[in-house]
Amino acid sequence: MKIIDLQLVAVYSTREMGKTRPSDPEKAESEHVIVFLETDTDVVGLGEMSDINFSPTPQTLSTLTDRLRPILLGRSPFERTTIQSALANEAWEHQVTCGIDIALHDAIGKALDTPVHQLLGGLYRDRISFAYPLAPCRVDEDVDANLDRIAWLQTEDHRTIRYYFGVDLDLDERFLTEMRDRWGKDVELNTLDASGRFDPDDAIRTIERFAQFEPNLVESPVKGRHNAPVEDFLQVKEAIDIPISEHVSEHDIAHKFARSQAVDVFNTGPGYVGITSCQKVFAVAEVFGIKALLGSTVELSIGTAARAHLVAATPNIDFPCYPAGPLVYQEQICRERVRYEAGHIIVPDGPGLGVEIDPDLLDAQRLS
Fold first, then answer.
1. Would strands 344-346 and 340-341 be described as parallel, antiparallel, or unpaired?
2. pLDDT at 271 over 80
3. pLDDT more than 70, % of the chain
4. pLDDT of amino acid 251
5. What span, in angstroms and rounded, lies between the C-alpha atoms of 223 and 318?
6. Is the confidence at residue 273, as pLDDT, over 80?
7. How far, in Å, CA of 337 to CA of 327, rounded?
8. DSSP 3-state assignment of 269?
9. Are 64 and 52 in contact (CB under 8 A)?
10. Exposure of 343 in the CB half-sphere (CA atoms within 13 A)
11. pTM for the predicted model, two decimal places
């Protein structure tokens, strides 16, 4: 089986949350690039560059396709290591290597008539607990908007959230207080995500202020995030009792944090580097006794399925994970969205990723 062509299709999808804040009636939109790896058999590998931060103009995608085709065409998807090594020799836009890596895994799984998780070590779990993302409160109306989202999640039996905080600490405290007063422990606050807003001293004071709401962990507490000095993380970690998490997607970052034990939790995900590299980061966490969870770039069902297969085969997952895109986005491009049930992502059963493009839905979401 050889790859004979590569097609990249830009699509958009509308988020259920507001564009500028939780209560904004105008909805946010995200852009994605769907990868089609065509082979000389009937197998087409699907990939996704999720919620991209570059403009997917026709010229941009044409240039990207022209750069990728010499690396891919004529090779078998089974030559994954060789392809990945060639990709690593060049600089790419955000999430390009992830989209290709997902498509290679999908093609191999389809060729073998087996789910992707079987390629990654086998099915360790078939359901993955997840946390729904809530944007920070910026104005008074946002408090009620986020409470309404929690009420909706409760009706679906999804009880775990991830809250981005730090824009207005008083509004954050009001929102979280009303959440606890209304639902108590029925809502699990998995993450308070500071998004790198604080210097170490402010981070400590802020985390101590919000410890009353009993988050499972605090993410990205210091300015600079994963590029910040390890001393900043150590200062915060040594001062508080709540686990500290940081985004760790690349080997050098994993090495830095593992060697220094500067964080308690690796938030890693294939959005930036792909499934294969992500497995290596999970392995580093396991070897050094660091807890781990799977992060998200807010994916459609292709990207979400890839993440679900990865976690399905990974034993050291210690907290609810973040992929929630099929719930966040109003539109999808697959015949069936990845399913969510009682606070869990249901792992698709394949072959490959176990998702299938609907041509009509794809056309409806295409970017011109």
1. antiparallel
2. no
3. 99
4. 83
5. 25
6. no
7. 9
8. coil
9. no
10. 17
11. 0.95
